[in-house]
């Protein structure tokens, strides 16, 4: 967004009633969800069943395994130790 648009958008928003703001909020939230879904689909498309991947846990461990299922929002993988994890694709790296 360029700087010319910002003041116009701000003025427009300031002119809206409470009901109009609620409606606009719903539109913005729906648009953000759609963008997030498109990004998730794009990220998910990088992976295939059987791909060898790794990710880092919150405590710093590196977990490696193979993709066994591509879910709507996560990737299911079976680790080298036999455990099953569901991980958001943004945290995975191909190895």
Overview of this structure, please?
The structure is a single chain. With 95 residues, the chain is an alpha+beta fold. The protein folds into 2 domains: 5-44; 52-94, Roll (SH3 type barrels). The chain contains 2 helices and 5 strands. It has helices at 5-14, 18-44, and strands spanning 52-56, 62-70, 75-79, 84-87, 93-94. A 5-stranded antiparallel β-sheet has the order 4-3-2-1-5, with no helix packed on it. A hairpin with a 5-residue loop joins β1 (52-56) and β2. The longest helix is centred in the N-terminal third of the chain and has 27 residues, at 18-44. The radius of gyration is 20 Å and the shape is elongated. The two termini are 38 Å apart. The mean pLDDT is 93.
Short description:
The protein is 39% helix and 26% strand. It has 95 residues and is α+β, with helices and mostly antiparallel strands. The longest helix is centred in the first third of the chain and has 27 residues, at 18-44.
Strand order of the largest sheet: 4-3-2-1-5
Principal-axis shape equals: elongated
Taking all Cα atoms into account, the compactness measure Rg is: 20 Å
The stretches of 5 or more residues where confidence is low (pLDDT under 50) are: none
Distance linking N and C termini: 38 Å
List the topology elements.
Blueprint: H1 5-14, H2 18-44, E1 52-56, E2 62-70, E3 75-79, E4 84-87, E5 93-94
Antiparallel strand pairs: 1-2, 1-5, 2-3, 3-4
């Amino acid at each position: 967004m360029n700087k010319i648009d910002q003041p116009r958008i701000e003025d427009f928003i300031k002119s809206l009633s409470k009901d109009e703001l609620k409606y606009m909020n719903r539109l913005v939230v729906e648009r953000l969800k759609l963008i997030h879904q498109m990004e998730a689909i794009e990220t998910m498309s990088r992976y295939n069943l059987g791909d060898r991947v790794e990710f880092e846990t919150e405590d710093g461990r590196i977990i490696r395994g193979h993709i066994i299922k591509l879910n709507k929002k996560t990737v299911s993988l079976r680790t080298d130790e036999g455990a099953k994890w569901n991980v958001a694709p943004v945290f995975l790296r191909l190895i």
